[in-house]
Structures are given as structure tokens and as C-alpha cells.
Amino acid sequence: MSFLTLDLNLLRVFDAVMTEQNLTRAAGHLAMTQPAVSNAIKRLRESLGDELLIRTAYGVKPTPRAEALWPAVRQALAALEAAVMPETFDVSKAQATFRLAMADATAALWLPSLVRSIEKEAPGVNIRMVPLTTREPRPMLLRGDIDLAVGFFPGVAAQLSYETGSPIRHERLYSGEYVAVMRKNHPLAQGKLELDSYCKADHLLVSFSGRAHGLVDEALAQISRERRILLTVNQFFTAGRVVANSDLVTVLPKHLIASTGAADALVWRELPFQLPAVHLDMLWHERDGRSPAHRWLRNNLESMSASAQKTLPQKSETNDRMEVA
């Protein structure tokens, strides 16, 4: 093969198929028909002497040659795109609709500020919220169901940090801690929370799937302890309301207490055992990442995250009740 005779348009098709891992979605992204995309990949296979992409039940799987080739192709196309894109971006004239996936508590904290920014700076930008019912949002991003996911995705960000060739990008917005949350006059709301008292209490677990087992239960099992989960709910708002009006104890990220709508009726205590930090990550697909409007959206969420951290509930300076302000 001579590079001089290689049709460089085939590399755009290759990049789209590698990004989408699906011929139909790649065709839609390129505004081409699926047969045209298939034909382009066939021509590239013949030029490079490699299968490149193997069909599977879920789309296509790249060969080792394709995985080695893609980073260079992607970098070259990104440089070309940056060279021909307009140097200025006027957000006030942007017309865009973004589909975001967040848990209810995260949305309650972030959306008011985001809407104010849109009203002030970007009147042509629309937001469509999609329920986040999983800790693994990458399939939603790969399918193009959403443009951005914000939440706690254990293991995903760590995997993306060392994974090469993934089209999913991520950024950490916040790192915080889990705390035990209960109503103000709860029997355990006075003084330090002890492990025995914690395990004897009845508990509420926020679980998107309804499964009555979470990080707390894994941590307790490591020290040969367990707890009774009386209730699971799939919304943080519901969790706050139930805990504020019962003797149930729940564990929440400290920064989400304010979003329960019952913060004035709740107190929090440090847990009597160790839990990993809770991280708030932002995930998006590379195909969207280069869009100036998408960058504007991410930058806004970054700023909001920094502002939100300044309003986290702190320990009371006058006594040890550590009430949520």
C-alpha cells in the first residue's frame, strides 16, 4: 500500500466506526447509509491488509491492528478539525439540546445554577434530563442515548484512567465522604456514633436497582458485622423524607444531604467504620467532547461543583451536634 493512493476519507469512516463500535450509529453520525459505511470499511481493509473490524452480536470488535492504528488516526483528525473550526464561539447564539443523566439529588443541586447560566448566557441551549438508574453509564454514552453523565461511578473512572483507546472521557468534579444521617431527635443523634449501636439500628439504603446490599454492607462484612436494611428506595429525596420522619438510619454522601429537601430535620455523624471516598465524576463521549457548546456545558458544571463544595454542611462550632445547616 502507498500512502499517496490511500483515500483519506476512509479514515473518517474508520474513526466513526471505532468510536461508535456500531456500523448503524456510525452511519448516522456521518450522515451516510450503512451500506456506504460497510463499503468504506471494506476498501480500508483491502488497503491495509487487515480485517480491522469483526462483526459481533453487539456491533463490531476491533482487531489489534485497528486498536493500534486508531489513536494516531483520531489525533490527526482532531488536529484537522481544530484547524478548520472557527476560532471564536459565541455561546449567546448557540443552538443545542443536551441530554444529561444524573441521580435526583445531583440534579437538585446542579440544575438550578445551570438553568440560571443558560438564561443569562445561552438562551438557545436546552437540557433534557434522563433517569440515571445505573452505576455504569458508558453503554448509554456509546449508544448516544445521553450526552453527559454526572454521578458516582465506582471503578469506571479508575478503569478509564489506564484504558487506552476508549472513546469515553471523564473528569472528577468532587471527592467527598459518606456520613450516617438520621432525624434530629434520633436516639443515636447524641454524641459519637458507636459501631454496636449503628449495627443494631434499622437502615434505609438508596439503591437504584432495589438490591439490599451496598458499599456499607461490604465494609461491615470485612469486620464480621452486618446491619438490617428495612427499606430500599431509588431516590435521595425520598430517603431524606423517610429518615426525617422515622427511626431509620441511612448513609449518604455529605454533599447530597442538602438535596434531600429535609436537611433542617436531619443530623449527620461520622461513620464508626471506614468507607472509600465518594467521587462525583463527569463522563462524556469523545464525539461530543470537541463541540464548543459541549465544552461550555462542562465548564459550567466544573464551576458549579467548585461553588457547591463551599456550602457543604460542617460541624457546629457551638456544640458537637453537627447539624446540617
Describe this protein's structure:
This protein has 325 residues and is an alpha/beta fold. It has 3 domains: 82 residues, Winged helix-like DNA-binding domain superfamily/Winged helix DNA-binding domain (Arc Repressor Mutant, subunit A, Orthogonal Bundle); 118 residues, D-Maltodextrin-Binding Protein, domain 2, CATH 3.40.190.10; 92 residues, 3-Layer(aba) Sandwich (D-Maltodextrin-Binding Protein, domain 2). The chain has 12 helices and 12 strands. It has a 5-stranded mixed β-sheet with strand order 4-3-5-12-6. It has a 5-stranded mixed β-sheet with strand order 9-8-10-7-11. Strands 1-2 form a two-stranded antiparallel ribbon. A hairpin with a 2-residue loop joins strand 1 and strand 2. Helix 1 crosses helix 2, helix 1 packs across helix 4 and helix 5 packs across helix 12. It is elongated, with a radius of gyration of 24 Å. The termini are far apart.
Short synopsis of the structure:
By secondary structure, the chain is an alpha/beta fold. 41% of the residues lie in helices and 21% in strands.
CATH class assignment of the largest domain: Alpha Beta
What distance separates the N and C termini? 69 Å
Q: Tell me the helix content.
A: 40-55%
Instruction: Order the strands across the largest sheet as they lie in space.
Output: 4-3-5-12-6
Enter the CATH topology name of the largest domain: D-Maltodextrin-Binding Protein, domain 2
E-strand count:
12
The assigned structural class equals alpha/beta
What is the helix/strand order? HHHEEHEHEHEHEEHEHEHEEEHH
* Total of domains: 3
Rg measurement, Å: 24 Å
- The low-confidence runs, each spanning 5 or more residues with pLDDT under 50, are 315-325
Q: Count of helical segments?
A: 12
